Amino acid sequence: MAADDASAGGGDCKREKRTASASAMHACAGALRLICVACAIDWLSGTGSTPASLVALMATVLAAGWFVSAVRPPTPTPCGTPGGPPVTAPRARMRDGRYLAYAESGVSRDKARFKVVYSHGFSGGRMDSPRASQELLEELGVYMVAFDRAGYGESDPDPRRSLRSAAQDIEDLADALGLGDKFHLICSSLGTHAGWAAIRYIPHRLAGVALMAPVINYRWRCLPRGLARRLYRRQPKGDQWSLRVAYYAPWLLHWWMSQPWLPTSTVIDGSGTFPNELDEKNRVMALSNGMFHQRARQATQQGVQESFYRDMAVMFGRWPEFEPTDLEEPPCPVHVFQGDEDGVVPVELQRHICSRLGWVNYHELPGVGHFQSAVPGLGDRIITTLLQAPASA
Predict the structure, then answer these.
(1) pLDDT value, residue 44
(2) CA-to-CA distance for 184 and 186, rounded, in angstroms?
(3) pLDDT digits (tens, 9 = 90+) for 33-52
(4) Of 74, 132, 184, 303, which cross-links 116 as Cys (Cβ 3.0–4.6 Å)?
């Protein structure tokens, strides 16, 4: 699992777990009452005892019906619809009629020398960015647009979300805002699956790509199985099980995450710790000052299924069309920034992937953890490297 910052779905998901657990208990009690009533009617009618096979069949049918109902995710509440959250941000229309909310920073579009699209990570949103200084953005002439990815914040959910649709959303956003034939792309954490997809599906639109702490799917075929398995087992049990469900049964994710008796993601509930001192400090601070839960509520206001869980299903599910090491060299420089103290993405696996892609400019950051946007000065370095450095840097 990965998060773009030290905020995820802790409080809301715990409440969902309690609600789902109560609903499940209520459904089970109702099923048992139905069986008892049927048996009582049979006994009072004088026909004798109810056959055990009939009771078993009724119980099985009722249990199956309860399970199908229990695992069905709740209906999303899109922004701007009756009962849904209000639309407060500017939004751009996609080719399929959905809308993505966005936020602009840097210089104005008409004065920009460089136009950059930013794709946020898990639990993030349109207000995220690499946190480059305004002085640098003005000096270089950078216009930056960050957007709520599908289902997050105020962007419409996409029930068919996939790797291809993530790349198409980026292209559609750039076209809706008139960013020209080519633009630069920066992706962070789990949002980097959109970066790999853009390299695969829209390489002709990219002037350069920077991937910050790109998340890794442990089941990619390109990874050394022994190493990947060993690093996977270092994770907390809840994170291991969450990734298993995302891969083998993504349709079960909402139900699984709602059960208080099952092992679930430490990233979502905020209980996971980080080996990097700055990462851990920011995690504790975000929990103590309420920012953790505030950002989670904003990210998941249209439904945790449409944001967090679809994210997990796309990133940690099956990649049938391609994997990063299957990609051909794009006609633009690609940079990967990886901290050697990243407690979410194992640096050993990142090194392996980048070594397989000779055209990737790999930047390993000593003493840096996963949340790179929190590292002072690193945002300026990433922007400068992406926009000014030659491909061999």
Answers:
(1) 58
(2) 7
(3) 666 666 556 555 655 555 66
(4) 184
